[in-house]
Amino acid sequence: MKKYETYDKYLVRKPLFSYEILFNNDGTRNIEDVVEELIQNDSFVTSIYWSSPDLYDTIINYREKKLKEDKIPRLIHTLKKYAIRTSTRCTPYGTMAGVALQHIKNKHEPEPISRKARIDMDFLAEIKFHIENNENIRKKLRYKVNNTLDKIPGQYRYQELVRTDNEEKYQLSSLEMNEYLGRISKISHLMKYYEIMDLLSTDFDENEILDFIDELIDIKFLVSELQLTLTSDNTANIKTVLQSLLNEEVYEAEVYLNILNKIDQCISIIEKTPISYLPISEISEIKDLINAIGIEKTHFFHVDMKHSPESSFEPDEKMLRNINTSISILHTLRSGNSVQKDLDIFKKHFNTKYESREVSLTEVLDSEFGIGFPTGSQIGNFQGNPLIEGLSANKNAAGKQANTPNLDFILDLIEEDKKRVINLENINLKPDETSLKLQNFCIVGSPVKDQFFCRI
After folding, report:
1. C-alpha triplet 262, 268, 270: angle, nearest 5°
2. Can you tell me the distance from the alpha carbon of 102 to that of 307, in angstroms, rounded to the nearest whole number?
3. Is the dihedral of CA 159, 164, 169, 172 positive or negative?
4. Reported pTM
5. CA–CA separation, 429 and 65 (whole Å)
6. What DSSP string runs through 286-353?
7. Which end of the chain is less enclosed by CB atoms within 10 A, N or C?
8. What DSSP letter does each residue of 121-164 carry, written as one string?
9. What pLDDT, in 10s, does the model give residues 382-398?
């Protein structure tokens, strides 16, 4: 059985309010009474803002008795769901639920609930897009070749970021090879717009070159220095670029730099104030600034909540052993469609096609010219696509009831309070269902007994 190590910390997820707000000495409270109390609670109303600014505005109008009578029932009905959610569901969601970090051995005094804020990524992507398409800024930026670019016979292939209805997604795009793309594809570092023009200046007039480079930027063959990444501080990078442009007297950069500075100031206020405080005047100022440049957004921030540690709770050694045993069993009975299985198949197909060659990852992951990931049952065989196989499997399995006598047998043994040794070698398990039910049992019910062993 696989062994796991226990770290010295654990994470507790908790809703903003205790579920006790839904009950009193006489039993369950009237949910409408609970809603009326929460409407006057600034922590609750502020939490509503981070998920729905429009609903927040409606609540404020209700508080100030400005809401039309015919809209009040719908508001109360909506807030009933929020009231239950914010007192029973521990899944982090804005400041309606959060996490607390606790040391297993060391107790800590309770700390005030705090917030952690950052700029909303969709909003930041919108600002980046707006900057890149500002005519007075575009030609002052530096560019490089898309880092997903790869060569296949007669073509360049890369992942193109496409915007549709203010949303972004990636698509696989191709361009036929030619001499001029070949020159540009060799750019290995960020270059200024006019430096790229110099690569083509001997063959075309200026307007033709401008149109050509602009097209390559539009289709993301060339990407700017403002490109967003997962591992760096994107806001700081954009501000650095804008400040550099402003130093070069590109004054249009000042508008965007001012917006990002206001956002940073607002984030600082959010993190330093109680969760009941909403910096509405600062947020309104940001909204006015972005509306002035043609951006219409209502979500500017992503806000999380950090709870105070559970200082009175301390898991003992027995509980830690039970958790370890439960996880080991779940690992043994895990789904056959695990990531590890996908990696094993990927390695097998890689060895079959490429043997010991060193190959570009972009080529390997190309589903047409490489092997893709997850790989199909046969290289280059689209009939082996797992999506198609899944449709076929679901169609054939429709209406059939799963036969799980072995699952019932195992669960019965787990629930018995006596020592058991199970040999699973000859048991025909259904991994997905077994893992799910064992997981539910371990989390909702009691931990697996110390005397329970599983031998594969």
Report:
1. 105
2. 10
3. negative
4. 0.72
5. 61
6. HHHHHHHTT---S--EEEEEEPPP-TT----HHHHHHHHHHHHHHHHT--TT-HHHHHHHHHHHHHHH
7. C
8. HHHHHHHHHHHHT-HHHHTTSEEEE-TT-EEETTEEEEEEEEEE
9. 444 443 344 334 444 44
Contacts of 419 (CB under 8 A, 6+ apart): 451, 452
Determine the distance from the C-alpha atom of residue 49 to the mean position of all C-alpha atoms in its chain, rounded to a whole number. Answer: 20
> CB–CB of 39/58 below 8 Å?
no
The phi, psi pair for 139, rounded to 5°, reads: -80, 0
Closest Cα partner for 124 from 301, 303, 287, 304?
301
In whole angstroms, what is the distance from residue 39 CA to residue 82 CA?
A: 11
First to last CA, the chain: 8
Q: Kindly indicate the confidence band of residue 275, based on its pLDDT and cuts at 50, 70 and 90.
A: very high
> Max alpha carbon distance in the chain (Å)?
87
Beta strand 191-192 pairing with 222-224: unpaired
Distance of CA 100 to the CA centre of its chain: 20
Tokens of 441: 């049992």
The letter for the amino acid at 124 is L
CB atoms inside a 10 Å sphere around CB 71 = 12
433: pLDDT confidence band, cut at 50, 70 and 90? Answer: very low
Matching residue, tokens 């429009």: 54
Give residue for tokens 């006598």.
405
Asked whether 168 and 121 are in contact (CB, 8 A), the reply is no
* Helix H or strand E segment including 253: helix 253-272
Predicted pLDDT of residue 374: 77
Please say whether the beta carbons of 301 and 266 come within 8 A. Answer: yes
The DSSP bridge partners found for residue 306 are 99, 114
* φ and ψ at residue 110, rounded to 5 degrees: -55, 140
Residue 105 has pLDDT above 80, yes or no: no
**What residues are paired with 162 via a beta bridge?**
169
Do the beta carbons of residue 162 and residue 169 sit within 8 Å? yes
Contact (CB, 8 A) for 301 and 267: yes
